[in-house]
Amino acid sequence: MGEDDKWKYLMDVIGIIETVGIPVAVALGLGYALMYLIKFLTKDVTADIKNLYDITVKLIDSNREAKDEVKKTMTGVNTIKDIVLKLFKKEK
To answer: Is 4 helix (H, G, I), strand (E, B) or coil?
Structure first.
């Protein structure tokens, strides 16, 4: 930014203050600063939420796989139990 650009920017700011008044110009400046702060904070929060969403999806998938494995195991255990019971009934 050259020296002339700085003076032009300063004159623009002074022109805004002369047009709308000091309280309104300060309110506009603080509004801009607040908007910048909110954007800065939500950018990080959005990334964290996306990361947590991905972790949640992986946990749900893992839980579903574990339930399927338990069902398969219980089916096998019940089949073996039925076979053992039939064998004991035949022996008696």
So the answer is: helix
